[in-house]
Structure formats: structure tokens, C-alpha cells
Amino acid sequence: MLELIDVWYEVEGKAILKGINARFEKQRVYSILGTNGAGKSTLAYLIMGLEGYRPTRGKILLDGEDITDLSVTERAKRGITLMWQEPARFTGIKIRDYLTLGGRRKVSKEELERVLELVGLNPALYLERNVDEKLSGGERKRVELASILLMKPRYTILDEPDSGIDIMSLEMIEKVLSELVNAGGSVILVTHREEIALESDYAFLICHGSILKEGNPSEIVQFYKNSCDRCDHPNEPSG
Ligand code: ADP
Ligand code: MG
Ligand code: MG
């Protein structure tokens, strides 16, 4: 289990996250829903432990181990992975080499083709292409999703997995989620879109850096639609 205990994050005296408490159990899909600027990506970076993202207060535990001060590499070794909102460009590496880690990841041709197809990329067209600026943002995200499927992490954080991907991709995201869960993993799905949050087992609604409400995704989505107007007005008190 991954646990956040009273996690605060402050930058230049401004509190971006204010006492987040959350538990993520095995083989479950969680969504973190909230409007732009709510603090979702910051929360994702803190869980992954990116450079400069350490809680100013609070703790992060993985199976009871305090990982609050561990580096991103140490967390990756323990099975935590993050797909960025804007995936990096890896100029000059073929998709085949990116997915097989230059041959270090043992994966059959069939498996390689299967995951590419699952994320909506035709293997015949994409395996030998370079991961570079000629790929669209959506294509790079699909390549990253394929890589995550081969990795089978224990905890996958997907930051706005649909941004930059066409509207047809909800079905693809569903398939990715069920594969990760069937492989024994859990997913933390960061999104501002209701239909994505509905794909989860449990939802957290984050507003101005706090969890405003959590529970059944359809109830949380309903609340978000009906009563979360104030989330769009960052200068008003969030209660
Ligand atoms: P979301 O992903 O929910 O859209 P973010 O986590 O990116 O939101 O940002 C939350 C808030 O914190 C925003 O108001 C953003 O401008 C602010 N913020 C994020 N990172 C920093 C930083 N390094 N320095 C100052 N403000 C930041
Ligand atoms: Mg944002
Ligand atoms: Mg974000």
C-alpha cells in the first residue's frame, strides 16, 4: 500500500498542497480529479519524488517504509512510475529500442507488437520510427503507455493521460488500466475530465491543494459537476 500522511508542499511561502491524506491499495485504479491549477501534477511529482518535490511537511509510506526522502531512482526501483503530462522527446532512439531499453528488456516480437497495437500504434509503421519531434504529443504518449505496459509497475501515475490524444482514446485507456491491474499493479489517474475519473474504482477531488471530497467516482464526478464552481476561482476561500 502507498500512503500519503498529511502531505504539505510549499513554494516561496505559498502552500500548493495542504495536508493531503490518501491511501492507495493494491490492484485498484484511483483518480485524482480537479480543475486546472488544483495541485494534481504537484501531487503526482511528490509521489514520484522528482527533483525539488519533497513534502515540506508529512510523510509518504510504501508498504510501511518511509520513502519521503528517497530519490526518483529509488522509488522507480520499488515499482513507482510516472507518465508526464508532457512526455519528453527522446531524439534519435527508435521506438523499438526505446521499448526494449536497447535490448536490455527481454520482450518477444509478439508482445512488442501486441502492446503497440493496444495503444493504437500500428507496429509496421512505428517500430522503426524515431522517438523525436516528428511524433505528435499524442503519439509520444502512446509510446510511453506501451513502455509502461511492458514494465508492469506496481504503481503507475498517469498525469492527464488523455491530453494530446484524440477523443477516441477512452477505450484505449480502459484497456491500459485493466492490463496494469491484471498484472498486479495500481494506477493513480490524474485528470480534470469526468469521463476519465469514471474509469476508476475510487476518486479524490482536489481543490486548491486540499482533498475536498473522496469516494465513489460517480458521486465525486456529480459533485464536481454541480458544486465545484469555486474551484475555478482561486482567489476565493476554498473552505
Ligand atoms: P494541476 O496539475 O492541478 O493543474 P499544478 O500541480 O500544476 O496543478 O499546480 C498547482 C498550483 O501550484 C498552480 O497554481 C501552479 O501555478 C502552482 N505551482 C506549481 N508549481 C509551482 C512552482 N514550482 N512554483 C510556484 N508555483 C507553482
Ligand atoms: Mg494543469
Ligand atoms: Mg497538471
Structure description:
There is one protein chain. The protein has nine helices and twelve strands. With 239 residues, the protein is of the alpha/beta class. The protein has one domain: Rossmann fold. The strands form three sheets. A six-stranded mixed sheet has the order 6-9-10-3-11-12, sandwiched between helices. Strands 2-1-4-5 form a four-stranded antiparallel sheet, with helices on one face. A two-stranded antiparallel ribbon has the order 7-8. Helix 4 (109-118) packs across helix 6 (137-151). The longest helix has 15 residues, at 137-151. The chain is globular and about 45 Å long. Residues 233-239 have low confidence and may be disordered. It binds adenosine-5'-diphosphate (ADP) and magnesium ion (MG) (2 copies). One magnesium ion binds next to loops.
Keywords:
single chain; 239 residues; alpha/beta; Rossmann fold; 6-stranded mixed beta sheet; 4-stranded antiparallel beta sheet; 9 helices; 12 strands; disordered C terminus; binds adenosine-5'-diphosphate; binds magnesium ion; ATP-binding; ABC_transporter-like_CS
Task: Tell me briefly what this model is.
By secondary structure, the chain is an alpha/beta fold. It has helices at residues 40-48, 72-77, 95-100, 109-118, 123-126, 137-151, 170-182, 194-197, 217-227; strands at 2-11, 14-24, 29-33, 57-62, 65-66, 80-83, 93-94, 130-131, 155-159, 186-191, 202-207, 210-215.
Q: What does the main sheet amount to?
A: 6 strands, mixed
Helical/strand content category: alpha/beta
Proportion of strand residues = 25-35%
What is the H/E order?
EEEHEEHEEHHHEHEHEHEEH
Strand order of the largest sheet: 6-9-10-3-11-12
By CATH reckoning, the class would read: Alpha Beta
Percent of residues in helices comes to 25-40%
**Total of domains:** 1
Q: What is the residue-averaged pLDDT?
A: 90
Tell me the number of strands. 12
Q: What would CATH call the architecture?
A: 3-Layer(aba) Sandwich
What overall geometry do the principal axes of the alpha carbons give?
globular
Using the CA coordinates, give the radius of gyration: 18 Å
Spans where pLDDT lies below 50 across 5 or more residues: 233-239
Q: Count of helical segments?
A: 9
